[in-house]
């Protein structure tokens, strides 16, 4: 997939796409644009369906505009996911473009994996319900929860009222106007790249993540602390608790270390012990417990832990001395850990082998899905043709009915006239 993605980016010219070499009028029309965010903090990629009519625009140029927005949103969000927001208010059959839908699916499937959070479909017309229900029935069970059908009354379940436009039933009076990428690249973005990323840990002071100088985010030349796991904490159920373990080992045989662990979500986790002293070659297990009331599924992906350490000259330093040391000196070594849920079957860390072996089957399902989309498109065209035929037949029936009514009226008029003439003749004889 990586090779295919690089090949596609080279052939498509993805890295070279800018506002200067794509259709600026397409960007300014507001058919597709980035706006606000959902409740998960993911940027919304809005598709204004009523403004799009199949065949009205040059499709390759529209593809380039979509890729431009994907690249821009990925860059602005530093790789964070996005949610597709289909604004289908006032949209009809003429706005239904299966080719465009297929293209979007292909981008997420092949070239932007794990970039999609939700597919939010807003106020879809009843005439399109059957189409989307069929598409929904084709999706694998794990993909169905990503599709959310919403209206003005329940949009707040996925987008906060202040982040939703007034036409969606929200409080935001935003009116689309294309803003150049250059005008939004001032804070933390240089030459199209994020200069750094700020992550807020337990004490609410932003800590800038600079590029690591070596594996393990070491700052000094020699490593002091060994972390297991080195990248991802896996959470599993232990009785009534959901826990993860971090094993800390002082690599040095002649130095004592002071360590401290911080998290981006202190309200969610209990870390014991979160700080302490490691004597030379000492190993210690730190337990991280998910607090009651928090659901492990889908919760841990954005949570982070930071393990820091400082070498100690005095191995018997008191708590007050350690606190003063951490305030006066910067951490000598830092390790950043992500979180994952080990209790679900599709855990990417624990089930990597299963994921690799299921690639062929997954590709078969995707091909079958694409085939069914093609079938649906043909079926939709057939239905549309039949509707047109029915309309013509109805029109012909109405015209024939009118002509028959006129003919019957004419016959009645002639009969009445003949009857009147006969009566006049009878009266004249009498």
Task: Describe the structure in your own words.
The chain is an alpha+beta fold and 430 residues long. It contains 8 helices and 18 strands. The protein has helices spanning 2-12, 24-29, 59-76, 98-111, 129-138, 319-328, 352-357, 359-429; strands at 32-37, 43-48, 82-87, 116-122, 147-150, 189-190, 193-194, 197-200, 206-209, 225-228, 232-238, 241-250, 256-263, 269-272, 275-278, 283-290, 304-312, 333-341. Strands 10, 11, 12, 13, 14, 15, 16, 17 and 18 form a 9-stranded mixed β-sheet that branches. Strands 1-2-3-4-5 form a 5-stranded mixed β-sheet. Strands 6-7 form a two-stranded antiparallel ribbon. Helix 3 (59-76) links the parallel strand 2 (43-48) and strand 3 (82-87). Helix 4 (98-111) packs antiparallel against helix 8 (359-429). The longest helix has 71 residues, at 359-429. The protein is elongated, with a radius of gyration of 33 Å. Residues 185-199, 203-220 and 345-361 have low confidence and may be disordered.
